[in-house]
Fold this protein.
Amino acid sequence: MGSSPTAWRDFAKRWRQFAPNADGTVVGITSSFTANNLEAQLGTALVDSGWAVPQLHQGEFNQIHQACLAPEQHFGRQPDIVVVLLRLEDVFPKHTWSYIAGDETAAAHLTAGAAEIAMLAADLAGRGVRVVLTLPPTPLPTGVDRLDRRVATRASRIGESARTAMVEALKGSAGVELFDLEAVVAEIGRNAVLDDRNWLLYRQPYSTDFFHLLGIELARVLAQATRSFPKCIAVDCDNTLWGGVIGEDGLSGIELGEDFPGLAFQRFQQQLQHLQRCGVLLAAVSKNDEPAVFEVFDQHPGMVLSRDDFAAWRVNWLPKSENLRSLSDEFNFGLDAFVFIDDSNFEVAEVANALPEVTILQIPEETASIVNLLPDSGLFRNIDPTSDDLERTRRVKEESKRQLANTSLSPEEFLASLELRVEARRAQPQDMGRVTQLVNKTNQFNLTTLRRDEAELAALASNESYDVLVVSVEDRFGDYGLVGVMILDKTSEDAVELDTMLLSCRVLGRGVEFAALAAAAGHGIVHGRHEMRGRYLPTAKNGQVADFYERAGFQRIDEESFEMCDANHLECPSHIELSLGAK
Amino acid sequence: MSDQLLELFAEGLDLPVGDLSDETSPENTPEWDSLAAMNMVSLIEDNFDVHLSTREIMKMRTIGVAREVLANKGIDGL
């Protein structure tokens, strides 16, 4: 991040030259300090990121509460977007100063005050206005000794507390986007950003240069949130994941490791791995022979990424645009969700030309700059590493493998190749959450559709006349986890009655249902019951199991009841390995 | 040679150079508000590579005075 001293001047001139646009997005800026300079910088930056010329309105400074409560009066018209710029030392000057000076009691005023502003912003967002709210920077009122150890510690502590209080206050309310002003200030450096003279004269705490960068960063936030994060990074290998060409330089010749230039590539790989952990799919798209690339992944000690981190491979000699198209088909999302990273001018041009919707990042010539490629792109800024997408690569890969296997083998060969393992065991206390979920959500493969809550199920599990069994399934592609529930009624002395028999549809079409039934039979036999009974209670959704018991070899007794006199006849399909857990 | 200082004020105030003279001041030019004043300081400092003290900034209430202030700092021939 940096700017030439005249960059703000260019933006200011350009802003004046744009024709006013009465249809432009109305952006209201409310700030605790003089921020009039932001208008031209933000406006021009928004135009540069593809917006039609927006209409910017600046409210009177330090009237954030009024702006949030009555935006139409404050800005003179109803805004589409409100940007709230906030510094603690402006809004709460007395308490900020006294906290920094050692008065602990001021902290509560500051955090409560910050939280109140967050809630006002949330209310505004709730009324349909898009709100970008600043998390305030470390408060350093003009005049404090910023290098004093206690001042620095207390200022950063209260800044952090206020930001945390605001984030907490916003929990559960959607629509407020956060902008961490502290991160931007710290990135450039306080000394370069703060301008005491401007604050004393005009209440503008920052240098005019800084407003240029602030405008660009805010425009990025505004532009970013209008689209989602890319879903896949398709990355080249030679001179991208490592320096050099594996086919020419060989395993020991490529640059990758703890020392520069290998270190730059290693850091780049670390960034990609982090994004993969955040749910972004990685795909290798390289013109190479596959074994050569795999050799690097499997044997090079400097590799950070492993083969498992990749959801798909396109190591071949096809045009890269063709490979990207086939990835889009395989993953089932559009090319506009792809980022393509490559060092070669030719490949970059080929993809740009054939697939203009793909976002392209080119590896810079300066090797040290590779580590800035992803951060500077801003494409993944504020991606949430704790989202439930962490398992996405694994799931996508398993599904792809299954599809692949599906097409190349006969059905019997396919089933045999799955190496299916089914385990049935008594439900443990920690299983009851999942059991409850399955009992209440499973519609299709559910013979009786008897819904029960967790307490009822727990009572059944501890009732001696009943056994609650859970079924889990694994195959060579991965673990499906706990996918089935069987509730066995042992009230009768010589028969087991299947009160509940259900399986998640994720595992159907593989014979798992017959393995589960065999497990139930085995369980009954161990408990001295050689006869089995089952019922089918039709619903709107469980038609597919109407003949389940008959297909398994049961005799129909009446409209809904079935029985099998000798449960030993129930066998597990030969392609499945069945294990019975604790009896 | 064109008048560099008038051109700079024209940029800062967003007015044609022809509208400006040494007598131009906030009193006779509504465009000369506090934002314009602040930006004029940045423009002058960037352009002439000087630092203006707050007293100098407060004194610059006409373009003519600005010219004098700069001359006192050794920037002549404007």
Remarks:
- Chain A has three domains: 7-224, 232-377, 389-580.
